[in-house]
Amino acid sequence: MSFNLDQFINSCKSAVEADKPQKVISELVQDAVNDYKGVIDAIGEPKHAMVEKIYVADNLTIINVVWAPKMMLMPHNHNTWAIIGVYAGREDNIFWRRIPDDKNGRIEAAGAKSIATGEVTKLGKNIVHSVTNPTSSFTGAIHVYGGNFFEIERSEWDPMSLNEGAYDVEKNLAIFEAENSIVKYRNADNVEK
To answer: Could you tell me the domains of the chain?
Structure first.
């Protein structure tokens, strides 16, 4: 059976009300990205960086995140659990932990995980991570959150100082748009050579 976006949304909406929603939704996302061609047929081939809203409510957000080639996003948290399933390409995550008693809320690297096409990872409520698309292709991933991704108060960390600050949704969405300009520039530069 091929991936059906409406059915996926409805299954996630039911699962978020059940016991252990993160476990159930993780299985739903795994089933979806196992049929990565079906996901691409339903939501489109990743061709430009974006954060596309699929479903947003107070207790559940489903988004299609497309990372541009070589794109990086600074360390951030979600203040809710998250399930990430890659349907095209690969994303590399660095996991961070707070430095105890640091007055600036600084963090230090604590681990890493690569997620490739057909793979899923679960992030707990308190996880801090940064994301890189290390490939020269676009990476597409379904992200499911246990809250309203666009309205939850959370943090991001400066990539140079690693000091904590307030997460800025609009600034981060603008980063995706800026990446599209960079890709166009790289492509134009390659055509001229």
So the answer is: 5-192 (2.60.120.10)
